[in-house]
Amino acid sequence: MVPVASEALRGSGVHLASVATAFPSGQAPLEVKLADTRAAVAAGADEIDMVINRGAFLAGRYQQVYDEIVAVKDACGDAHLKVILETGELATYDNVRRASWLAMLAGGDFIKTSTGKVPVAATLPVTLVMLEAVRDFRAASGRQVGVKPAGGIRTTKDAIKYLVVVNETAGEDWLDPAWFRFGASTLLNDLLMQRTKMTTGRYSGPDYFTVD
Amino acid sequence: MDIKPSYGLFVNGEWVDGEVRNKTVNPANEEVLAEVAWATESEVDSAVRAARTAYEQVWSKMPGRDRAKYLFRIARIIQERARELAVLESLDNGKPIRESRDVDVPLVAAHFFYYAGWADKLGYAGFGPDPRPIGVAGQVIPWNFPLLMLAWKIAPALAAGNTVVLKPAETTPLTALVFAEICQEADLPPGVVNIVTGAGETGHALVSHPGVDKVAFTGSTEVGRAIARAVAGTRKKVTLELGGKAANIVFEDAPIDQAVEGIVNGIFFNQGHVCCAGSRLLVQESVYDEVLAALKRRMALLRVGDPLDKNTDIGAINSAAQLERIRTLSEIGSEEGAERWSPRASCRSAVSGSPRRSSRA
């Protein structure tokens, strides 16, 4: 699909992100993950979404997780690397914080909560922990890393709550699509519905908007 | 919500005018909310006599299960009138509506429900098989949690079979006066609850009245000492809950963000008007800069503003006199070499216009 999308977007200025590294499980030999990444970049992706090796992480093999991220980052070349932590499987906030730190130290440009393929996706507390992590990482290293909560954010009202947390935790610097994004396809529909309501004063049903 | 232009004293189940009149204001904008009475010695005397009569003739003889019915009834009316009480508390006290609505008033109702449950079970409470009430309780409460302090004092006293004369603080009498209306609405026998508004002299008249069997006071250490002196050598029992400004201690292995939340809650909750407010902060030197930077960052996010705005974190200091005292203490701190810091922030001014019209609960 990457070549098709790349062809369609040529010259539009829209960036193209692709999942790689045996998404969504992340359970494949490293060589396979790297080949997957190189293929996506070669096909025109300028952003790669990888998933961390949760098996290794939860077993305490942090070095392995770190080395894999470094290797994928290397395979990305100029493409940006988004590291999915799959926070729904990390069990504790301490783990979320530790995984965030690991991903940033290994060179991730973005940290993302979820693949959307496990029952628990983004939550406000988990996002708070990740925002604190990027804030503290910038204070320590000078490098700014983006945050992307994905899954579970379905309404405009939810989105506003997240934006408030971004502003109050990481600060205004992150209130920018380059540094904070939602991964939530249902949200778009609700946003369109709210905008329509604002212009017309009436609510309409979801059937009049995109079906996904 | 209706605030009456003028309130009297609630004695023996009825409203009496009171000789000395004074005003209570909204501390957010200094607008006068209502005129209230400052009870004189003789008015306090009639309240104590009413409480004595009610104690001897009605309340102490009533079976616990019947006292419980009245307390349950009061608790339910408080729930029904919760919005009104919350708005009134914020108007008279200056605390954010979010706190009065979500903390103070629900807790008040919960206390009455809780003690209502005890009224017929006192034989099992650990005071022996047949505990007896003490008599007339003279209760003096502070302005930081006006209605909640009232609940802490009145609910257990009534559950155990005592009658009360309560003096709310002079800057925050209104919710206690509405509570008196609630007692009427609940058909509480006359004299079981008496509310005498007023300042220090009224309080002094109450705690030193010979007809009072038990003195309960929450407030400043200074006044607590005076009360201890006043009741010394009498047969009165006394409970004092006094100020104790507390210290936050942060060590280097603390999770800094959580520690900062604790510090902020400790000192800014209820404008810092809390007997155990964390007004001192001791930080291990190795994390001093980090904690201070995080604290400043967090403080910059606090909203100071109109108490009736749901987004307000810090409302109004309870009175002009208290604000002046805070300023004086800050000056003394500066003179002693302390460094001042406040976030750059604008204070959203309180809405003008009569609260009687603008806020329908």
Automatic annotation (TrEMBL), chain A:
SUPFAM superfamilies xrefs: Aldolase
A biological process term (GO) from this entry: carbohydrate catabolic process
Annotated EC: 4.1.2.4
Keyword list, A-Z: Lyase, Schiff base
Domain of life per record: Bacteria
One Pfam family recorded for the sequence: DeoC
Protein name: Deoxyribose-phosphate aldolase
Biological source species: Phytohabitans flavus
From TrEMBL, chain B:
GO molecular function, one term: oxidoreductase activity, acting on the aldehyde or oxo group of donors, NAD or NADP as acceptor
List of catalytic residues: E241
Residue intervals of the Aldehyde dehydrogenase domain: 15-339
Biased segments, Polar residues type: 349-361
InterPro entries found in the cross-reference section: Ald_DH/histidinol_DH (IPR016161), Ald_DH_C (IPR016163), Ald_DH_CS_GLU (IPR029510), Ald_DH_N (IPR016162), Aldehyde_DH_dom (IPR015590)
Manganese recorded as keyword: no
Domain of life: Bacteria
Region (Disordered), start-end ranges: 334-361
Alphabetically ordered keywords of this record: Oxidoreductase
Pfam families, sorted: Aldedh (PF00171)
Family: Belongs to the aldehyde dehydrogenase family.
Official protein name in the record: Aldehyde dehydrogenase domain-containing protein
